[in-house]
Structures are given as structure tokens and as C-alpha cells.
Design goal:
The complex is a heterodimer of chains A (about 300) and B (about 240). Chain A is α/β, with parallel strands linked by helices and about 300 residues long. Chain A contains 10 helices and 12 strands. In chain A, α2 (about 15-25) runs antiparallel to α10 (about 290-305). The chains are: A alpha/beta (about 300), B alpha/beta (about 240).
Chain lengths: ~300, ~240
């Protein structure tokens, strides 16, 4: 009891002080900065390139060092991957992805989605490596119900960074014609657009996420009418950022598209093989109308009790 | 009284701490090339894996006089792979896909590890027999895509991807079929090569990667250049 009294005195807030609380704590449009780091299509490239035009670039230990350095500078970081972690060097042929997952875990990846090549050793090959990954794979439009990976993956995850809520979900590419059936077995591909609209709206409207990110392995853009991030983004709503993969596209700047509601969606992809990492810093400030609502309701309620 | 106030105060704090919503104001973006020095913890994780495969993967198998690159309508890399595969089966032609060749190879020594990067997949070589109409489908597919790796025939096509003329190594009129060597990935519907659908597949008994590695181990110098297997002409000609 005495401690509690001390606490109230110490905070300098009595019955009147409480009314000032919202302004004291959260006033003056306090900005929050969120740093999104992202990769795609790393394709088992453990080491930097030793020849060719990418000579000296890439490398997972090199990426880890850079990420550690960024984490020292930035308070709120989300590290995400858009799939195709597997396949591309002998490390995958010999170890099946174990080393890739261990290194990504060491880098503290927050989430990844599944690319078509993550099926290259079959569902059992993927299942076998999952214990080496301490981060979740998010995939909303593959139904694994009739496979050995039933209940293994979640469609989305909500991350909290400071006061921010960030919703992240994953969308995969059509497997038929791309991955041999014997590898993906009874995995059912579901429509990316209706699935994305369901989860993005859930995250944005119901869960009130401040930012909704789609990890997509659809591919950036195609000459034909195949669904891509560029066409997907204009047929969906409530997505702020699409982190893409599959087409190994090196974008210098994120592309911008207008969604179904005419709101801007950012689309980014940073090549392949871990040559680059994408860094997007988002700046938020507190929603003024929400702040007023909360301030008022708390003040009225608490003052009536105190009197 | 003050006790109560304390709870209200904490309650207010919790509400405020959990529930404010934020507006996205702006963003800054950049692409950061990975060229930093390596993280020692990660290097230590890599070390035992690297050590176990390093010797085998760094073995030099052959030498290439020219860069082996991807491209359309033909490429040195595509010609290299499809030509060498014909040594491993009794086939009239070999067809692969650009997407399946996963790296380019620079002039100089070629290591076993590089060939794993070129062909990381466990795809096997298979033989299929196509009739005249499926062969036409195959030619059309190659041309519509602006060229895919093939060996054993000559094709002339328009810039727009129409087949003008082609060689035919068998006599369809006599009821012969053309024997096509490809990977089981493509034979099973990969890259939408529909003319392979439903055909009986004869396994050659070797993986594509192993065929490439075997050929390179037995060949001193790779001397592959672009040739006249595919010609692209304008419509007027």
C-alpha cells in the first residue's frame, strides 16, 4: 500500500493529473519508425559469388553481419523473406536446406513464405528441415489439409513493435506446371486474390494492424496475363506492402500500384541469391482521432469514479 | 480512494499502451548490396558443412574456351547442355528449358560445384516418342517462346515466333515417330510442354546433372559457340 501511494506521488499525478495523461505520454504526434528488411529467392547461396558480374556480392554470413549492424541502429526491425530459400548450390543437394534455415534463424528472421523451390525435396523434405527454422512460414493460399504438413503453417502472423501492430501474411504461386505433382502431392492452391482480400481485411479492419504486409511468391510482372504482384496489387485491398519474389527481379525502387480502393501499394523485390537486402523505413505518427477518443473516455470514466 | 485511483491509472496506461493506432506518414527505401565483412558466428555455423563438401565441389572437371551464357533464340549454355545429352541416349533430338539452366559459366575452369549450380535439380533424362502433330506442337512451343534449348534439328522462325521451316529427322509418312530426349520435369508437364502429356516415358537411367558432370569429366575443353541451328527472319523474306 505504501508503495502504491509512493508511486502515485512520484508520478506527480493526482485526480487532476490523470486528465493530462494522454498528452503527456503520447502527445505531439510522436513518430515511430519501423524498418522492414527483406530478401527473396536466396536459393541456397551460402557464399558470396566468386566470379562473373556478381563477384564478391552476397553471402549469408555477410548478410548476417549487415543485419546485426542495422539492428544496432534501428529500434524496430522486421526481417522477412519471400520464398525460394531452397535449391541452387550443392549445399541444398547435400544438406536439404538445413544450413540455410540455421543461418536464417541466427539472423533472427521474423517470417518467410514458401516459394515453389521450397517443395523441391517434396513435402517430407521440407518437413524434415523445419526444426532448423526458429521462424514461422506464413502461407495463406496453400491448403495442406490432406498432406503430411497439415496444421504446420499459419496463414498470417501479427507482430508488435513498440505500439505498432504489423500484420504479415503469405501468398504462393500456382504449383501445377511449375512443381512436379509428386513433390507437392495434395497441396491445394487457392485463389490468391480472394484469399489475400480475406486476410488483409481481417488484419487491417478487424485486427487494426497499422501496416499489412503480403509476402508473395507470385512474381513481379509477366508479359502474358499470368497473375503477378503488379496485377494482384490492383485487385486487392488493405495491403500496404508486397514483398515479392520468384522472378528474381532487381528493383531499384519499390513499384507503386493503386489497389481496389485507390490506395497506394508498394511492391518490392531485390533480385536473388542474397545479393541484396531491401530496407524500407516506414514512419508512423499516432492517429489523432483515435487519441482523442481514448483520452476522453478514460478521463470521463475515471473522474466520475474518483468524485 | 487512492488505491482505486492506482488501478484506474494502470488501466488507463494499459489501454493507451496497447491500443493507439498509427497513420503511415512516409517511407524511405533503399537496396543494400551485401558486400560487408562476414559475421563470425555465421561463419562458424557454415564451417563444418563447407568442409565436408569443399574438396569434392572444388574439383576442376574441364575448361571452357568461351563464356556459357543463357539467351534466346539459342544460347551457348543451351547448346552445350542439349548437345552433350544426345551422347547419353538413342534420341533424334534433345529439348530442355531456359528456366532450368540455373547459372551461367564463365570462360576458364569448370568445377563440379559449378555444375551443381547449373543443374541443381534431381531431374532425370527420359525419352519420349512424338508423332507429327506433337512434333509440330513442340516446334511451335520453341518458336512462340522465342527459342528454348534444343539439339538435333534446324528451325527457321519469324521474329513474331512463327515456324517457317524446320528439319525432320524421321519420316512420319512411314509411320515413324521422333525420339525426343528431355528431363522428367518437362515430360511431366513442367513449363507447360503439353505435347509431352500422356506419352510413355522411357527412363535413360541417368540424372541430367550426372550426365553433364560425366561429359565434363571426359572432355578436356568445352568449345561451344552459337551455330545455325535456329534462324530468325523478318516476315518479308
Amino acid at each position: 500500500m505504501s508503495n502504491r501511494r509512493y508511486f502515485i506521488k512520484q508520478s506527480g499525478l493526482g485526480a487532476i493529473g490523470l486528465s493530462l495523461l494522454p498528452q503527456l505520454s503520447f502527445g505531439n504526434n510522436k513518430d515511430i519508425k519501423l524498418t522492414i528488411l527483406h530478401t527473396n529467392d536466396m536459393h541456397s547461396h551460402i557464399h558470396p559469388f566468386t566470379s562473373g558480374r556478381n563477384k564478391g556480392l552476397g553471402g549469408m554470413a555477410e548478410r548476417a553481419a549487415l543485419i546485426k549492424q542495422i539492428r544496432k541502429q534501428e529500434e524496430y526491425v522486421l526481417l522477412l523473406d519471400a520464398g525460394d530459400i531452397f535449391q541452387g548450390t550443392p549445399y541444398f543437394n547435400f544438406y536439404g536446406g538445413e544450413l540455410e534455415f540455421k543461418l536464417m534463424s541466427e539472423m533472427k528472421y521474423d517470417a518467410a513464405t514458401l516459394g515453389n523451390h521450397d517443395f523441391d525435396n517434396g513435402l517430407d523434405g521440407l518437413q524434415k528441415q523445419l526444426p532448423h527454422a526458429n521462424f514461422p512460414f506464413l502461407i495463406a493460399n496453400y491448403d495442406f489439409s490432406n498432406t503430411i504438413l497439415k496444421d504446420t503453417f499459419k496463414p498470417y502472423k501479427i507482430f508488435r513493435k513498440g505500439d505498432l501492430k504489423i500484420g504479415v501474411f503469405g501468398i504462393g504461386i500456382e504449383l501445377e506446371g511449375l512443381v512436379p505433382k509428386k513433390l507437392y502431392q495434395n497441396t491445394v492452391y487457392q485463389d490468391p486474390i480472394s484469399t489475400a482480400n480475406h486476410y488483409a481485411t481481417l488484419l487491417k479492419q478487424k485486427e487494426k494492424c497499422d501496416l499489412v504486409i503480403c509476402l508473395s511468391h507470385l512474381g513481379f510482372k509477366y508479359k502474358n496475363n499470368k497473375l503477378s504482384d503488379m496485377t494482384f496489387s490492383s485487385q486487392t485491398r488493405d495491403i500496404d506492402l508486397i514483398i515479392g519474389g520468384h522472378t528474381h527481379t532487381f528493383l531499384k525502387k519499390p513499384a507503386k500500384q493503386l489497389n481496389l480502393d485507390g490506395k497506394e501499394v508498394l511492391i518490392n523485390q531485390v533480385g536473388w541469391a542474397g545479393i541484396n537486402i531491401g530496407k524500407i523505413d516506414f514512419y508512423f505518427n499516432q492517429n489523432d482521432s483515435d487519441k482523442k477518443v481514448f483520452g476522453r473516455s478514460i478521463f470521463v470514466k475515471s473522474s466520475s469514479k474518483m468524485v | 480512494m487512492k488505491f482505486k485511483l492506482y488501478y484506474i491509472y494502470i488501466g488507463a496506461l494499459l489501454l493507451l499502451a496497447c491500443s493507439p493506432s498509427y497513420n503511415l506518414q512516409s517511407h524511405e527505401d533503399k537496396v543494400v548490396a551485401i558486400q560487408s565483412s562476414a559475421d563470425s558466428t555465421s561463419l562458424a555455423i557454415i564451417a563444418p558443412y563447407q568442409k565436408a563438401i569443399e574438396k569434392e565441389m572444388s574439383e576442376v572437371l574441364t575448361y571452357t574456351k568461351y563464356d556459357l551464357e543463357k539467351g534466346r533464340p539459342q544460347s551457348t549454355l543451351g547448346n552445350f547442355v542439349t548437345d552433350l545429352c544426345l551422347n547419353y541416349a538413342d534420341a533424334d533430338i534433345c529439348v530442355m528449358n531456359n528456366g532450368g539452366l540455373r547459372t551461367t559459366i564463365n570462360v576458364g575452369n569448370i568445377t563440379r560445384g559449378k555444375l551443381y549450380e547449373l543443374m541443381p535439380f534431381e531431374n532425370e533424362l527420359v525419352l519420349l516418342e512424338l508423332d507429327e502433330s506433337d512434333y509440330a506442337g513442340l516446334l511451335n512451343y520453341i518458336c512462340k517462346r522465342g527459342g528454348e534449348p534444343f539439339s538435333g534439328i534446324n528451325i527457321t522462325m519469324t521474329k513474331e515466333g512463327d515456324v517457317i521451316k524446320h528439319s525432320t529427322p524421321v519420316d512420319f509418312k512411314k509411320g515413324e515417330k521422333i525420339k525426343v530426349l528431355t528431363s522428367d520435369y518437362l515430360a511431366n508437364g513442367g513449363d507447360k510442354m503439353s505435347f509431352f502429356q500422356g506419352k510413355e516415358q522411357i527412363k535413360v537411367g541417368i540424372k541430367l546433372r550426372d550426365a553433364i558432370i560425366d561429359y565434363c569429366s571426359k572432355t578436356d575443353t568445352i568449345d561451344i559457340q552459337l551455330d545455325n541451328r535456329i534462324k530468325v527472319i523478318s516476315n518479308e523474306q
